[in-house]
Amino acid sequence: MAGHPKLKLPVPPGFTITTEVCTYYWNNKRTYPKTLKAEVETNLKKVEKETGKVFGSVNNPLLVSVRSGARSSMPGMMETILNVGLTLKTIPGMIKMTGDERFVYDAYRRLIMMYSDVVMEKAAGIEPKDDKGIRKILDEKLCDVKAAKGYKSDTELTAQELKALCENFKKTVKKVLGSDFPDDPMQQLWGAIGAVFASWNGKRAVAYRNIEKIPHDWGTAVNVQSMVFGNMGNSSATGVAFTRNPGNGDSHFYGEYLVNAQGEDVVAGIRTPCPINEWSTSGHGNDSESLKKVMPKAYKELDAIQKRLEKHYKDMLDIEFTIENGRLWLLQCRVGKRNGIAAVQIALDMLKEKLINKVEAVLRVSPAQLDELLHPIVDPKAEASAKAIAKGLPAGPGGACGFIVFDSAAAIEAKKAGKECIIVREETNPEDVEGMRAAQAILTARGGMTSHAALVARGWGKCCIVGCSEITVDTAKRIMTVNGKQYKEGDYLTLNGTRGYVYEGKLSMLDAGEKNANLINFLKVCDAVKRLKVRANADTAADAEKAKAFGAQGIGLFRIEHMFYGANSEKPLFALRKMILSGSTEERVKALKEIFPFMKKDIKAALKAMAGFPVTIRLMDPPLHEFIPHSKDAVEAICKALKITPEQFEKRAEALKESNPMMGHRGIRLGVTYPEITEMQARAIFEAAAELIKEGLKITPEIMIPVVCDEKEIVNQKPIIEKVHKEVCAKAGKKIAYTVGTMIEIPRAAITSADIAQVADFYSFGTNDLTQMTFGFSRDDIGAFVPDYIKKGILKNDPFQILDQTGVGFLIRHAVKAGRGVKKNLKIGICGEHGGEPSSVEFCHREGFDYVSCSPFRVPIARLAAAQASAKEMKK
Ligand code: PEP
Ligand code: MG
């Protein structure tokens, strides 16, 4: 701030020790460069000259504050020490200068509290006994005095009481920490400087940097600044202000302040602050005590400064200020933290005000902030005071509250009765789909981020936590147990699916107000900046419509087998069961004929909903054993239909069992062994397309072959598709343009990309399976070990959530390069769950993909992530 003379900021004189010194300090066993001592002394002299005060002087003492200053804002993560330089020698001088003995002893007791805590305990690495640090011990002493005197507020303590308290504090410090509170100003200054550098690697700061992805080697600067006092009586004050409202983005100056106080009083919430103006009154009742009314001159100056600052920095800023005897001082200024609603509002307003351009605007909202606008969330206030009973993988964002049910039937019943429930399962299988749909949220003890429950939940924008290994579920007894405590059907839970926390009981929720005009306008700005196309993984016409509403530019993955799950699946599922349990080609073909009309109808509906946009239809890929019936009635019905005995059924079912279904008879392998299955699907696709083309719609199906590991598999299947295409075109008298591409989801396919590209029109990376097979981690069973891998630092993230750019990324990079080497314009996309994850989307942008595809509810996030990837590139 001081480095901007043009901005004319009233900053207390001071100097900065740069981050390089912090790096040196940590690289050299906590020592300083040789020249530092002399430099600090020279600069201190300059400050003395500017202020007309002298550090350590008996008659005219200068006091300083010592604060951290990191390159990226880390509010409250590092340390600050105020009033440095107060000693038994300088106290009388301060009293003479200010004429206020009470004020000076109040400053002294604050120094002892901060210094003993930050320098003598934390920086010295002393672990407090029973978790009770020196600051807490001293605070209790202060409370004791207040209680003994019957005082409610700190301000009621007299000078003599504070003086006695300071003596008591120093004795306590010596007793608890084993050394004297330093009475030499220089010793205090160097102690404080060292402690700020040390706080760079404090637990809080390290954890914060990990979350915010701030590099650990940046280091902090130290700002040494002459003290100004907001606690010099009623013409003094201190406060925190934002150039715009950080809670809703409103473009008015916003803030809070306290008369006769020091900064920590505002931040620590000891006293309730007053609004600075009429726009900051929310929650405070009235503005009669606003800074604007109480100290109009200082307010006017502050308002003019905040306007200058925002114009210069072109962002919403957080400003700390102090008014000392009517004179305004600025202590700190940084980019202000804000919530999602405010972030979007501010970006749009600043764009309109021409303060920033579109490229800058899209970088002003983080994907997590945008997500806040898309889901109802648990009220953060309620969550702050609640204790989570368990933690799982955050599979579906947002919050939900409802009572526990243990099966689909109960969930459906609850929904019918208009009640909100949470379905709790050990794991989920296709039979739970309807219950999952009916429930408010899903909680499972097993499974990973790409487990069935997670995929389905995200597809519906539902709150979902999977792999919550702390819970055990006894569906038969209808009991869930967490850490020895039992929960019954009907007991309430609240889930935070964004963070993976499970709470007991009902916590209040916030409706984040989805689909608001701001969201739509902001995403339009994103579209103007992004290069990647964003498609959706959608299996029904309804999903396709939803995806279009969210801005999808096509379908990147239509899973053709969706009709065998969930509502209205009885008939096609029965036909499918007949097909997989058939004993001959004739029987199979007969069953396929029964499936055909269902498939054609669904394909037609999805193609129609997305007419004009590309639609990728993937041929059948489910592990067949999933569909073998188990219930007595279902088995009997199948036996009757196939005219077989229960024994024959058992035999056929046994033959279908696989020990590793994920790597079993699925995908293209079905078509290789049973060409009639591919033929039926191709016919359903082309007949649906032909009928729509006849209606005058523009339809270009992209047929996608899954689980390919060798180009000869495609060579084997393509003639079947071509033959059906010819037949359908001839019969309909229409031309149907189409392409045949493949998923790249097996490492061997990626490796042999130069061969595969010869026979494929496009690639879509199936990064769910590609991650599974590259790591050798079953995507449905990671809950048991991946959390430990992350805790122990073996993995940085769950690779099923965030694309592993090193390993899986290596295969992708190779496949793209080799594929485009053969076919320059090979269309490339991604349809694994990573297609909606921001860092993975950025990777796809960098690697030259044409599109990403993700569940409809993640389309807005993908649009933002794609725009940010472009924006970063443009700014380079
Ligand atoms: C994939 O493997 O990434 C993919 C999209 O296919 P599925 O999830 O259906 O296996
Ligand atoms: Mg797959």
Can you walk me through this structure?
- The chain has 876 residues and is α/β, with parallel strands linked by helices.
- The protein has 34 helices and 32 strands.
- An eight-stranded mixed β-sheet has the order 13-23-22-15-16-17-18-14. It has an eight-stranded parallel β-barrel with strand order 25-26-27-28-29-30-31-32, surrounded by six helices. A five-stranded antiparallel β-sheet has the order 9-8-7-10-11.
- The two termini are 26 Å apart.
- The structure holds phosphoenolpyruvate and magnesium ion.
Helix fraction bin: 40-55%
**Radius of gyration, in angstroms, nearest whole number:** 33 Å
The biggest beta sheet, please?
Answer: 8 strands, mixed
In total, the number of strands is 32
Give the overall average pLDDT: 91
Indicate the structural class.
Answer: alpha/beta
| Morphology call | elongated
SS field, number of helical segments = 34
Bound molecules: phosphoenolpyruvate, magnesium ion
